[in-house]
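User: Structure tokens for both sequences below?

Assistant:
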Amino acid sequence: MKTYNNDEQRRTLPFPGINIVKSTVFIVVSLFISAALLDHLGYLDFNAFAGFKLTPKSFEPKFPYQCDVVQNQTHQIPSSQNLTSRLHPNRLQPSSCPSYFRWIHEDLRPWKETGITKDMVEKASKTAHFRLVIHRGKAYVKRYRKSIQTRDDFTLWGILQLLRWYPGRLPDLDLMFDADDRPVVRSDDYTGQQNKNPPPLFRYCSDDASLDIVFPDWSFWGWAEVNIKPWGKSLEAIQEGNNVTQWKDRVAYAYWRGNPYVDPTRRDLLKCNVSENEEWNTRLYVQDWDKETKEGFKNSNLENQCTHRYKIYIEGWAWSVSEKYIMACDSMTLYVKPRFYDFYIRGMMPLQHYWPIRDDSKCTSLKVAVHWGNTHVDKAREIGELGSRFIREEVNMKYVYDYMFHLLNEYAKLLKFKVKVPSDVEEITPDRLGCAATDRWRDFMAESMVISPSEELPCEMVPPYDRLALKEVLERKANLTRQVELWEDQYFHDLAKKL
């Protein structure tokens, strides 16, 4: 009988320990491969893999494609994606849009009966900075002239982000955009004249005597020239600043910092500053942007300016970008009577969201406002908080994109011609705009870039005002403003009786 020594047995008989080692190695390797795959898909932080913590990985904003070579790109979030399949299951029912969306219908009312012809659109090119065509989910632009700073680029950047936020949901359209401040389509020029229809022209603000169509301004995606970050980041920073100084501990005067040289009304405001002879309950400061630029914007951080109970808003050459930053501070906004309006201010109400200030008697009006606030502390704080809540909850980026979405959809419904891509336009993509930018301009585009489509449907569009309801809204605003003016008059009447 043949016998086996121990070495031969080890060579020929199965050894249980070897199988265990092989199995363990296989399991470990499989786990690491799975972890790497989850990390690539964005569901696992590979660095925290030892703890097996399955969480969505935070994304660093960056441009999604190669920036060294810009080719004929079709790099868009696929428009053919089934929207319902990627929506959050609890968000399939859209919320109602904020009430100020109703003004979209009013802004487009001049073309409700006639519609918009191609000839009307092309007549708007007289003052436009660019023509925008959206066709099959892609954006094309023709530039007529350069805007102030990079307003045009950041406006176009915002529109590209809208296309990424709601891919495949924007209709074909053709429009003209003027990136200057003041409106130019005067309604008197088109009143009572046959065959003379107003040109539809988009811009950042308008007034009661004009027909310009109001659109969110460029600073929602960043104002690089003065180091103001994209609105989402700015809003977070201001909220943190709000928490640093509680309202009751804030300086009990009205604060303003800005450039007084852009318009006479601001120079007039400086007369209301504290002096040896007068105390108007204000603290006003001149903002020297040239100096700030040289010193790295050390004294212009928005989050550091929420230290007073009252903040003054006053227009510049037209409406001012500063509006939303001032109103986000939880301070009671002292709103100097405006001539112009942007897209959301028409949804705000005196004595609910802000305190109205006369434009023809600023100093006395400001003095009374601060006195009233310091003797009605709880009510003043409530007005400040309601104004800030409106800005945070109804003018956040989700609703900015929704406003753009509904405005462009309602506009496209009025077009009386089939939109085609003209031969003299160029396609714009995130690559073309973002890769050409440098320094802060590039950083702000990266920070404001939409990484993935919205998980929610656009809010449900609100119906237009009927004539009576609109009249009631306007009368209520006027009556509340008159009420404040009566309080002011009574204050100085009582003061004179004491002298």
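Moving on to the next sequence.
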Amino acid sequence: MRTGGAAASLEQSKPERRHASGMEASMEAGGPRRRLVHLDLKGAPPRASYLAEVLPLLRGLGATGLLLEYEDTFPYAGPLEPLRAPHAYSPGEVRAVLSQARAQGLEVVPLVQTFGHMEFVLKHKEFAHLREVKMFPNALNPHKEESRALVKAMIDQVMALHEDLQWFHIGCDEVYYLGEGEESKQWLQQQDNTPEKLCLSHIKAVASCVASSYPAVTPIVWDDMLRGISEETLAESGVPQLVQPMIWDYAADLDVEGKVCLIEKYRRCGFSKVWFASAFKGATGVNQSLTLIGHHLKNHLQWLKVASNSPADVLEGIALTGWQRYDHFSVLCELLPVAIPSLAVCLQALKNGGYSEKIKENVEKLLGMSNLETETFMSTSLGTFPGSNILTLVTQVSFYLKSSVDELLERNRYVTGWFSPYHRKRKIIHPIIMHHFQPDAVSLLSKWNAVVQDLQAAMEQVFHKCTVEEWMEENVHPSLQKLQQVVDDLDKAIKAQKLGAF
């Protein structure tokens, strides 16, 4: 997952420069003309039926396309079948989603990781021998012919389900431990060989594979592995003629001048076009449950400044990333329905070249919300967008479940003074004290059980059972089970008291 840190503050940036030539080519109303919404399906993949509900909303909000990161939810077949998760989409479901996207005028760009972030492939015993470092399943060994054959097979299967593609994202970000495998160490001992050249050679091999098999399709790569490479090395590699880099940064105080300089560097190296990548969710905390809309809005406003200070003919478009996990093994961050208001605000800001009270009112109208807060989590209205009930219930749980249980169990003097772990273990309770907190505990448990039941039902409409279980175990069970245990211990203590056992 791409989690860029904040760079130099804007106060220190140089005066802005606007390039007017060709502005209409890639910009509209001050914003990028192509706006891809990234769906990160490696965690909490929505049911196909929910995506069918959401796509018209995305179009209405200003999206022009989708960046679909399938990971283990693609229906891989044959030798690649082990990659397919139990909840993967069927070929029919993928075709239906793609057909619905086309009907909405949304261009689809598939994303398949082909170098780093390969855990969903390399964790399997069938493919573990293709790891760069034997112990780590994150990066692919770039030296093996079998690695390239694997990547080609994955790309071919995804391509086969997609028609008329213009772009295909081949990933290639965060290739940690590259150069530390045994074959790489031997390769790097040879004269003039460097980790940068090793990285570029694999990117070139994958991009060349796409170019030869699908000449009408342009590969896109994440740019972080390219940023630190010298202009000369980049230019000599041949990579700039084969791919378009997607420059990602999710910081609220993104360094505008630094990005403008990076774009100029990429142009000098021979890249004809670049993409930007912002974030509407999944970039402010690995286990974040509610979306910081204000943070993401600021990030997009900064990207608009980068766009207005760069040659317009170099910008192909922007992808609004919505990370669902930081990597294959991490916990879930904000669920898609929870982040739709953030996505709406960010899309409208990009479409209109900024954000204003009038645009805010339009977002509220599109979402069916009477009051959308960007600086706090507490939007008072429910909303009518698909999954809005999940946002309402997740907000309740995130704000009040843990705090209300902690208030009762850790700050109620009757519990801490007369029903401590010592008392609970021995089933000791003072009959008078019991009446001071038992009704509160029972009432609180009843209230939260009802909320959680509603949330579970709402989530099951949108997600598979495994997602519901994971989210509940991470966000609900720790507090709810603690409360349930106290109520159970109270019942046991009362029964022991009636039996004269204390």
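User: Anything stand out in the second?

Assistant: DSSP finds 18 helices and ten strands in the chain.
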